[in-house]
Amino acid sequence: MALSNPVIGKDSGKSAGKxxxxxxxxxxxLEKGKSQFLLHCAGCHKKDLSGAVGFNLKDGEWxxxxxxxxxxxxxxxxxDKAGMPGFGPIxxxxxxHAIVAYILSKREGFENLQYKIYQLESADDGDFxxxxxxxxxxxxxxxxxxxLPEIPHYxxxxxxxxxxxxxxxxxxxxxxxxxxxxxVGIDGKSITPVTYGGVQKWLLNxxxxxLNFTFYSGNASAYLRNIELYVVNQDASIKLFPVSSQAxxxxxNSRYEIxxxxxxxVQQKKIVKLPAYSMAIGSPQxxxxxxxxxxxxxxxxWKDDLLNVGPNIGGRGKDGSIPLGDWxxxxxxxxxxxxxxxxxxxxxxxxxxxxxxxAPEFHFTVNGLTxxxxxxxxxxxxxxxxxxxxxxxxxxxxxTFTLPSAEGLLVSSEQGQVIGETLxxxxxxxxxxxxxxxxxxDK
Length: 443
Fold this sequence. Notes:
- This protein is of the alpha+beta class.
- The protein has eight helices and 28 strands.
């Protein structure tokens, strides 16, 4: 389906939903949906759809409905109070459909999650039938809620369509479940768990599957009955997303640490004390910084490890991840190239970034000038940001930077002139220049 369709407007209802569903099997339409999403939506919802200023769009919780036609309606109407414009009058219908299809193709977790509670005779009872059914329903947030039963002996069954990560091996993982009676089925087949250290995990299929999770109360205490259920990576070192309401709650207050061990890492998460569009870069030397793709500024620098992303996971992208160390400086302090902007549009544009097994390189344009910046943290208590002029079509002579000011921080440049909190560089004399930051070491 071409996105050049000149029809601008709105459509809704089941017919629109069916049209969008049909695109889920159309790789070309999904690629076009991706490009449109990156252009119009990624700034608030992140490139990976995990949420920042806007909500997480991958999980099963949808405030205004997660059916294709409901998502389309939200896209078309927007939410003025939240700062989201309505794209109905702006984008062709084909583009709108493609965006919604792309969002649906990235879903994770349960969809249309149902529960059934069966009354058992005793803690040792493990058999139930339809005659023992005492409650059932649908969970709107698509999170397994283990606090629903109000009887002492029960079995609770959660079932629904489940979307596992498509690009990696993953497991359904339950914490604190030693000696608990749990059965998991995927696509009608019973799954044998991997058990170790008092926890269990079950290998998931990639992508869409039918998942059943049955828990028998047994002799478990009330504390153990409220299970924290997650999807994790292969070695269970990273909790990818919560599956139960208790896991979701705990995620906000738990530490899920991401560290750069042996190589650089780039994380696109909302981060406390940093503005939207900030990307966290962690180095093996335990110095980390944030590059802002909207302002092209280095708007944060901190020591030690990278991020605790627990609040970001639990908050569905709305809560900020927490740096695992001490700030050297953070926004509004920043290293920022100064340029004019027209019509309140961003003064810079990120072209790309790449790692190539070393420190990331960020390529961007500012005031018509194309630059690249990378970093060097190999010296103790020092960070060097190296800039290179890639293209200077307007033959600009000088480039000015605002500089951070913080206690114990020294900023200098061998190629430019620092006056107060400003650096001026003659870019016709220096196509390569650097900004050095030195901070106090640990006492």
